[in-house]
Amino acid sequence: MVSLNVSPMIFHIYAGTTVALLSMLVLTYNPFIWTWYGVLGAGMWVICQPLFFTGIAKIGLTVTPPIVCGLTITVSFFWGYGVFGEPVRR
Prior knowledge:
Radius of gyration: 17 Å
Strand content: under 5%
Mean pLDDT: 87
Number of strands: 0
Distance between the termini: 46 Å
Structural class: mainly alpha
Number of domains: 2
Largest sheet: none
């Protein structure tokens, strides 16, 4: 097994470049629609991804994803129910 010592920021650049290129591929069969929500989402992604990769490097792969997923669910519920007033359905 080969162990690589890559900085989380360098890995984020690799991951971000891959996501950007794949997003361009998706635009070949979907129309391009500009919204500020896309800019906001991209900004949040750019901030969160290095923190996620740093968390994996510091506390491990088995601990970081459950914490991040739990926070994502909590924040999504807050925005959906609390801010946008979406009803909770079964």
